[in-house]
Design goal:
By secondary structure, the protein is mostly beta strands. About 5% of the residues lie in helices and about 55% in strands. The chain has one helix at about 5-15; strands at about 35-45, 50-60, 65-75, 80-85, 90, 95-110, 120-140, 150-165, 170-185, 190-195, 195-200, 200-215. The longest helix is centred in the first third of the chain and has 15 residues, at about 5-15. It is elongated.
Amino acid sequence: MKLKNLFFLIFFIASALSAQQIGKLAPETKPIVFPSNAWGVDLMISEAGFGLGTFLRKSFSQNLTGFVDFSFSEAKDDREVEYVNYYGQTFSIGKVNRVFLLPVYAGIQQRLFTNTITDNLRPYINIAFGPTTILTTPYDKEFFSAFGDAITKVALGGYIGFGANFGISQNNLIGINLRYYYIQILDGNGIETLRGKFKDHFNSVYITINIGMMY
């Protein structure tokens, strides 16, 4: 299933759960005041694989929130072709290095449609920017032992996204965010991902599920 189809499926299910409240104006009900701080984890899914992250958010107003986040995920070359052998093992012909991205970003999140959609569904756009550590390990070595020969590079990157938080709980935070990442290596040499082929930037779309607590 394509990533965008998966995103819209999750978004549709979550929206359906709150369909009785979406789009209704409730002038007699005061807006819910959510706690200004939130912390949690990000579960990241992309065509390159899975990732895991954490975030810390601070609300400056009802609509504007600042945040920092850190994540760890695998990156793949767009030219890479994967094969599956008889035993179900996945491998890539000509692959030289595994690549892992460790971005530390700061950003802002702007809530949308505050006066037209109830607090049960809180859509937003967000943007973030910051340094990224890129970690490479030899592909021809066993996954964990290869970290003994890891090489790091420094990059700058960021993402822009669209998502929503769901529910009216003032303790638990559940949301989903569709993000487009772009990361540029700074030294100009690039990384040999496939034999004889170097890559000086990485870009990918991630579906990120946010699970956390507000306080």
